[in-house]
Specification:
There is one protein chain. The protein has helices spanning 124-134, 154-175, 190-197, 211-224, 242-245, 248-256, 293-315, 331-346, and strands spanning 2-8, 11-18, 21-27, 39-48, 53-57, 64-67, 79-86, 95-97, 101-103, 107-110, 115-117, 142-145, 183-185, 205-208, 232-234, 259-261, 267-272, 277-282, 319-324, 352-357, 363-367, 378-381, 384-387. It starts with a strand and ends with a strand. α3 packs across α4 (211-224) and α7 runs parallel beside α8 (331-346). It folds into four domains: 2-28 and 189-246, Nucleotidyltransferase, domain 5, CATH 3.30.420.60; 39-97, Nucleic acid-binding proteins (OB fold (Dihydrolipoamide Acetyltransferase, E2P)); 101-185, no CATH class; 258-375, Aminopeptidase (3-Layer(aba) Sandwich). Strands 4, 5, 6, 7, 8 and 13 form a six-stranded antiparallel beta sheet that branches. Strands 16-17-18-19-21-20 form a six-stranded mixed beta sheet, with helices on one face. It has eight helices and 23 strands. By secondary structure, it is an alpha+beta fold.
């Protein structure tokens, strides 16, 4: 996999490629105002019990929404420590929480006072070892062990743990004397987060054509993940930009199209609504001349399942996802399709779960929200691509 960081339409873009195919893309937000992960001293402006929410002022242009579950006996005009967990999108306000966490490459520190380990770390011996490694610190803090810790040496994990504890303690200490609206912690820029969150074992190259970003990423890599230093490079060919080299425009346009053709001649239609994402699988040209229709439908559905999982990551779609596969009469084929889809979902970079087949034969899935979907970052009008 390759991570490309480049300027595109006057914005910084992070794009992930695998075998020359775009598999994920995001526009980096500006460093002004607030950023997801930033921690502030906020002020409670209003508590609305009938919608189980409070509205918090962090000194931004608009109030932030906080779920009532995160409102621990707070009062109006009270000053509290909050962290931005979701940026404002169109008519939706930014979301903050009193549950503070700091993300590292291997660990996440929080105030839960327990240890959770990534489900992608399957080995029981390794899971027990990781719990033992962190258990002495949970009286003060909690930890989430990230997938990147799977093959990391214990010294690196301990070193990052101690670094995160210092950052966390410093935030709490600063909050005691900080004035309202003070920013207690500035989250890393989106491109640093992209490097941090890349799986070391699955990333062959990190490349940028922006010298300032190259130097910043290099400093981060040398301090926190020196094993990735050899895969970082600065692209210096001024005659041919990175976005042209990787064909960003055409590939982002495809990520905004509703119809996605499969190699077999079948296709899928992706419709995003307010309530859910609906995906329809169609046989297209593939069924012509086929004698064993049931086997053909199964083959199409399996091909579609793989493409659907790629599209969910590429488009960063989340929430409830309903898939209308081609109807198959055989229970064995249906069960095998769900098994295959579940296996693909388990490999997703974010939490994804195949719920079941409904009574109408629709497959229901859920996918955790992480960052903005592509259609909220880019817009396609005719053949013209713009950044929102």
């Amino acid at each position: 996999m390759e991570l490309v960081i480049t300027e595109y339409m006057n914005n910084i873009i992070c794009a992930w490629f695998k075998n020359e195919r775009l598999i994920q893309v995001c526009r980096c937000t500006s460093d002004t105002g607030y950023h997801v992960g930033d921690i502030f001293v906020g002020k409670v402006k209003n508590i609305v019990k009938n919608i189980n929410a409070a509205f918090i002022d962090i000194g931004a242009d608009e109030l932030c929404f906080m779920q009532f579950a995160d409102c621990d006996n707070i009062k109006r005009e009270e000053e509290i420590i909050v962290q931005v967990v979701r940026e404002g999108i169109r008519t939706k306000q930014p979301v903050v929480s009193q549950n503070i966490s700091i993300t590292g490459r291997l660990l996440i520190i929080n105030d839960k006072k327990n240890i959770n380990i990534s489900k992608k770390i399957k080995d029981k011996t390794r899971r027990n070892e990781l719990k033992e490694l962190l258990s002495e610190d949970i009286k003060q803090n909690g930890f989430i062990v990230r997938t990147n810790a799977t093959n990391a040496d214990n010294d690196s994990i301990i070193s990052e743990k101690e670094s995160l504890i210092k950052i966390y303690d410093n935030i709490i200490s600063k909050a005691k004397t900080a004035s309202v609206y003070s920013k207690l912690y500035k989250a890393p820029s989106d491109y640093i987060s992209a490097v941090r969150d890349s799986y070391a074992y699955d990333t062959q190259r990190i490349i940028t054509d922006i010298p300032e970003i190259y130097n910043e990423v290099k400093s981060y890599v040398m301090e926190f993940c020196p094993d990735m230093a050899d895969i970082l490079s600065l692209y210096e060919d001024k005659s041919f930009s990175l976005d042209l080299l990787f064909g960003l425009t055409s590939k982002i346009k495809k990520a905004l199209n509703k119809k996605v053709w499969l190699d077999s001649g079948a296709y899928i239609i992706i419709d995003v609504t307010e309530a859910c994402t609906v995906i329809d699988v169609n046989s297209g040209k593939m069924i012509k001349g086929k004698k064993d229709a049931e086997q053909t439908f199964f083959n199409i559905n399996c091909e579609a399942a793989e493409e659907i999982m790629l599209q969910l990551r590429l488009r960063n779609l989340s929430g409830i996802i309903i898939i209308d596969f081609i109807d198959m009469k055989s229970p064995e084929y249906n069960n095998e399709l769900v098994r295959i889809l579940s296996g693909l979902a388990s490999k997703d970079v974010v939490s994804c779960n195949v719920v079941d087949i409904t009574g109408l034969g629709l497959v229901e899935m859920t996918r955790k929200k992480q960052n903005r979907p592509v259609y909220e970052q880019f817009s396609l009008s005719g053949d013209e691509l713009t950044i929102i």
